[in-house]
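A.,

Following up on our hallway conversation. Structure tokens first:
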């Protein structure tokens, strides 16, 4: 549980702290690494669940960007825990791309935002392979682990 400086959205618990729970004597460094990847996917799901609830609009796909999107294991697990496709664009560093687009729009290189949409392309898509019962079971385990990090700071 990566809560080294608290748990924020959707919990808003600054007194939470990082923890590794559920270990047995058979756990090795590979399990710890996998747990770190899975934590990223579960935290993403929690934020997206809150967004779905607040907006009343269900997520139908997740477009991803950044360095972690090149980890195929993480992207497949993200699709599995969300139950929707995860899509990586050809240009995965969209922060830099967005700055370039803003500059290009400002100087008239592109006339409108609609011109930019033609530049977007899909590199890879992961579809969910996990059955709904298993998804619910592992997510419940995640939620249980989250509660173990609460109230560490007095």
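Then the amino acids I'd put at each of the 154 positions:
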């Amino acid at each position: 549980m990566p809560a080294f400086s608290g748990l924020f959205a959707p919990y808003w618990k600054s007194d939470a702290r990082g923890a590794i729970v559920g270990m047995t004597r058979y756990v090795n460094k590979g399990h710890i690494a996998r747990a770190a990847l899975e934590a990223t996917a579960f935290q993403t799901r929690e934020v997206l669940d809150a967004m779905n609830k607040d907006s009343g609009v269900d997520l139908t796909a997740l477009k991803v960007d950044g360095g972690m999107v090149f980890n195929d294991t993480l992207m497949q697990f993200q699709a599995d825990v969300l139950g929707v496709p995860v899509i990586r664009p050809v240009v995965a560093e969209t922060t830099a791309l967005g700055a370039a687009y803003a500059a290009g729009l400002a100087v008239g290189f592109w006339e409108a935002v609609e011109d930019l949409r033609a530049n977007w392309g899909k590199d890879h898509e992961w579809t969910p392979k996990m059955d709904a019962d298993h998804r619910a079971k592992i997510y419940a385990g995640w939620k249980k682990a989250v509660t173990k990090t609460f109230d560490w700071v007095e």
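The mean pLDDT is 92. Curious whether your intuition agrees with the design.

B.
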